[in-house]
């Protein structure tokens, strides 16, 4: 019998104007911060995070204007890296996190890693529409982008490719949805 995965809890951080909403699994262990690409939200990480064991604390954050986080007129990557650092500090994770970034979030993860303590940066997927052929039907709901023209304006300064020092896992757009348990197992090897 396998141990039960940590239960997900939802939280928010910040003021109503700059609020970030996030989910957390686990209370101790190596912290992993999960960042979705543009037009997605934190729910894209739910299947994989549910597979994590108790020795990892996962935190999936809605970027501004996505999911339940407050929209911003302009999402400056330096400001958002600072907000993410304050959130990580508030969570009292006690160890430098591994950042897992999907598509455009690689830009934020690299900027964060350049300024704050980070164990590792891992990127998955790429920018733009992605085929869902390899994603099991049950997980496709987590890979549907929500198009919002305001997001294109707010994130106009973001790059679409990660900087070269990150570790890129897989050429598929959604390796964490194609095989959530396998992807979770990979996270255990990154310590």
UniProtKB/TrEMBL annotation:
Q: What keywords sit in the KW lines?
A: Hydrolase
Q: Which GO terms describe its molecular function?
A: hydrolase activity
- The answer to whether UniProt assigns keyword Protein transport to this entry is no
Ranges of residues in domain AB hydrolase-1? 32-164
**Which Pfam families does the record match to this protein?**
Abhydrolase_6
Q: Which domain of life is it from?
A: Bacteria
Tell whether Hydrolase is among the UniProt keywords: yes
**SUPFAM superfamilies linked to this entry:** alpha/beta-Hydrolases
List the Gene3D superfamilies hit by this protein, alphabetically.
alpha/beta hydrolase
Full protein name: Alpha/beta fold hydrolase
- List the source organism: Actinoplanes sichuanensis
Q: What is the lineage of its organism?
A: Bacteria, Bacillati, Actinomycetota, Actinomycetes, Micromonosporales
